[in-house]
Design goal:
heterodimer, A: mainly alpha, Arc Repressor Mutant, subunit A, two-stranded antiparallel sheet, 11 helices, B: about 220 residues, 2 domains, seven-stranded mixed β-sheet, 10 helices
Chain lengths: ~220, ~220
């Protein structure tokens, strides 16, 4: 079988596509392709950096195929969506170019945003967070150690997480003299009051806000 | 002219060279390219919150190979004119929040929904409503084309535009309503539909402004 040149493929496929349109275009241009072959060709282009993939709300993959190599860029919202059962759509976004942000950075971004949906979504990240010293450093930079600690304890009520290091906990716990802080200004609830007292942080969440985490047991 | 890819390369290179984190706002064609509303732009417009950051960024561009340009040649001897650099046919305008025809207001900054980080360079992308509003202050054909593209590809909430127009007037840009009204009339003349109540609202604002001006003059006399 003759190998199709990458340039040739890019010439006919540049643009936004779903799998169906890729198959159609390939066949229109004399390249016999079924689903399997189309996926293989997209994979070949993707490996060389010409394709960026996105998933729509109804789980359809959209391929953005560019004639030039696409520099890697990472959206914080996409990373939150990949790692949490609480998906976010049409949200203001922070995109990092040329460097993949760590989950710890994404968690701090979500808490810093003071957006309730992002905060609920970021709770799922605790399942995968490993680098507690990085998380502590990032949180300290923003003055969010207690907020991170409180949300970690909230996360423990609904999902399995890795255990936080003693060092993180000891350094983050509030001193007696410290006052209560908000995660979202002026927002608190009647739930999670023990965690609130422990961390001296008002938690803006109800038990019901975390329903999705309870429903996705496997998560 | 610069395309999306080259623009990204430029920001990546500048971001790597910056020694401290600098934040700026992309407006005009640059913002449209980020939002996927345009493929090329003639000039890159960036708004900085202070002169220091603008100076640092300009120095980086000069290191990359851009050359300084006398902005008075383009904007005349006015206050708050941008600093400009160029390379071949690409011009970069480095602005401060108070620009000639508008103020990049706090409300505009709050409306921002997309931020891009290129190492130490953080670029916040202006909201399409604000891009539209800023385009109205000029009378270039390319701006009319840009506004048409924005209106075709995004859902415009005209109340945001009206509110921001009032805000601009409050901030001292008295021409905001007039400029927008004239621009929308031009748009209608070439077949783009604009909600009628918006033109009426703008006219009311303009009438109110005229009355206030007349009273001021009377009091002075």
């Amino acid at each position: 079988m003759k190998q199709i040149k990458t340039e040739e493929l890019l010439k006919i496929l540049a643009g936004n596509h779903i799998l169906k349109t890729v198959i159609e275009i390939l066949n229109e241009n004399g390249i016999k392709a079924d689903k399997q072959k189309a996926i293989y060709l997209i994979h070949r282009l993707k490996k060389r950096g010409y394709v960026k993939t996105k998933q729509t709300q109804d789980n359809i993959r959209v391929y953005y195929i560019s004639k030039k190599v696409i520099r890697p860029s990472y959206s914080f919202i996409d990373i939150l969506n990949e790692n949490s059962p609480q998906k976010l759509y049409n949200f203001d976004d922070y995109i990092i170019h040329n460097k993949k942000p760590s989950l710890e950075e994404v968690l701090i971004y979500a808490i810093k945003s003071k957006n309730i949906r992002k905060i609920i979504s970021c709770i799922g990240l605790f399942k995968k967070i490993k680098n507690w010293s990085l998380l502590y450093r990032l949180a300290k930079k923003q003055g969010l150690q207690r907020q991170v600690g409180a949300l970690y304890d909230v996360a423990r009520t609904v999902i399995k997480t890795r255990k936080v290091t003693k060092r993180f906990r000891n350094l983050s716990l509030p001193k007696k003299s410290e006052k209560f802080q908000f995660i979202i200004d002026r927002y608190n609830s009647k739930h999670f009051q023990e965690i609130e007292k422990k961390w001296k942080v008002y938690i803006p969440l109800n038990y019901n806000d975390l329903e999705d985490y309870r429903m996705f047991k496997k998560y | 002219m610069i395309n999306i890819k080259d623009q990204e390369n430029l920001f990546t290179e500048a971001g790597k060279m910056l020694k401290k984190r600098i934040e700026c706002f992309a407006i005009g064609g640059t913002a449209m390219m980020f939002l996927g509303l345009k493929e090329y732009t003639k000039d890159i417009d960036l708004v900085f919150l202070n002169k220091e950051d603008r100076k640092i960024f300009k120095e980086i561009l000069i290191k990359i190979g851009y050359k300084e340009m006398e902005s008075r040649l383009v904007y005349g001897a006015r206050e708050n004119i941008p600093q400009m650099v160029f390379l071949a046919d690409l011009r970069i305008d480095l602005l401060l929040p108070e620009v000639i025809s508008f103020i990049f207001s706090e409300n505009m900054q709050k409306r921002i929904e997309e931020t891009h980080e290129y190492n130490n360079l953080i670029i916040k992308i202006a909201d399409p409503h604000d891009i539209l509003l800023m385009k109205c202050a000029t009378e270039r054909q390319k701006d009319i084309d840009d506004v048409e593209s924005i209106m075709k590809n995004t859902t415009i909430n005209w109340n945001i535009i009206l509110e921001e127009t009032k805000n601009q007037i409050k901030l001292g840009k008295q021409r905001a309503a007039l400029d927008l009204g004239v621009f929308l009339e031009n748009l209608e003349a070439i077949g783009t539909s604009v909600p009628k109540n918006i033109s009426e609202e703008l006219f009311k604002i303009f009438e109110k402004q005229t009355k206030e001006m007349k009273e001021k003059i009377r009091k002075k006399k």
